[in-house]
Amino acid sequence: MAIKRQEKTNRIVVLLMAIGVSGILAACGGKSKVDSGVAIRPNGGVIAGGTANIAPGQDGKAEGSSDNKKDSEKEKVIKNICILYTGDVHGSIANAGKGDFYYDEENLTYSSLTGYKYELQSQSNAVFMVDAGDCLYGSDYATKDEGMAIVNLMNEAGYNVAVPGDQDFMYGMDRFLELSEQSQATYISCNLYSKENGVGLLPSYCILESGGVKVAFVGVTTPDAVDEKSKSYEAFLNEDGEKAYDILYSEEGDKLYSAVQKAVNAARDQADYVVVISHLGCQVSEDMTARPEPLTSKAVIMSTKGIDVFIDAHAGNEIESELVPNMAGETVVLTSAGKNLEAFGEVKISKSGKISAKLIKDYDYRADKVYELEKEYIGE
Q: Exposure of 55 by Cβ count < 10 A (0-12 exposed, 13-18 middle, 19+ buried)?
């Protein structure tokens, strides 16, 4: 069920019944268990796997299948596949643009994002929800239970996939892994790995399917997480102060590009579309012809191929939709929703294959269960 705010009186009235995830096969609910780089879903629906051995010189293997599909589900008519995304939320429950994570019913919230999802579903669209990192830390709401409040909100909203950003490690690696297990979203990253054995801590990619169309999501985590000056650096150390975990990259960018390309290739073999969810950030330059810095989203796009959409976060930029050429000269849609729930993004893939992206900064409807949870956390 969703609720609409009254503009003048702020009274809440019931207006819209919640729509189930109609037509979606392989929803990313449940937990992933990683064994030699392959994440296996208990429901058999989600293909999640990829480059397990991501340390330099090691190759991974992607496996997975979705054999238990129902013919009746395949036949459901889906108008569009819509990907709703957030990034750099920084523990916000509502748009924090007015100050210190200010909560106001006039602001965007997780409940309004969910209400928007319900509206899209009511129009026969399939909807996937993803986060591009830095959602678990940064506000009193988030830190009082070390991220669990945000996980609960995202679970109630129905997130499918998430990528860890540097601030998501602020409670320590063990706590991040606990939260990722509690999350109904599948956490993915193609360049986060264990130093002990070179095996990835998370699946490199996840494939979701709706209406017979498979969309692969590839995760990328910023190397800033392991910068010694970063507050998240300690999460990557063991009790002896030595690195137990790491992010695969090189200052020139080639190792990062290779990790992304390897995951994209494996995912592309099994999917119709490949969407990268990145916590890298994009530099803003007046010279649009200048080569971007090596460890940014644009540099990854320009140094790889096979990506259709690139959802970015980390820099806090608002990029509604920018076409960036890849190494083959093909255009990739780059989009980023800014920070602190000032906006959320929508990527739309039409039946004809047309891809578009936009940012939503205001929406009137709220999903009532998420709304009640928000009110509980802010103590109202």
A: middle
